[in-house]
Amino acid sequence: EEKDAEARSIERTQIVHTLATHPMLPMYLAGDHDGGLLLWHFENKYATRNYIAAPGPRILRTRFSVFGNKFGVSNGAGCLSLWNFDRNERSSRPFGTIQCHTKRTTDFVFLNA
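Request: output the structure for the sequence above.
Response:
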């Protein structure tokens, strides 16, 4: 039993500042120190998709909506970017980006999304 757990562990080396797990699928988003956003499947060794977030410094918060159909990221430049989530869709750009203010945006939440 212990050997099975070791065989399934995957080592990843990436500097990550924020993680968000999908509420229904075995996937998660990782926001890194230079504004990159990657989608990972729990069992894959490599990221399945690279998203293009608003230009700026590191991503400070990543969140999925409660149903998992949307996700967003906020960054150190005060931007909030939003995507519709479809794991089969190949669009890597957000459907909307909002400049919230001139300082960093540390958090946000989806209401009734």
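The beta strands are 16-21, 27-32, 37-41, 49-51, 59-64, 70-75, 79-84, 96-99.
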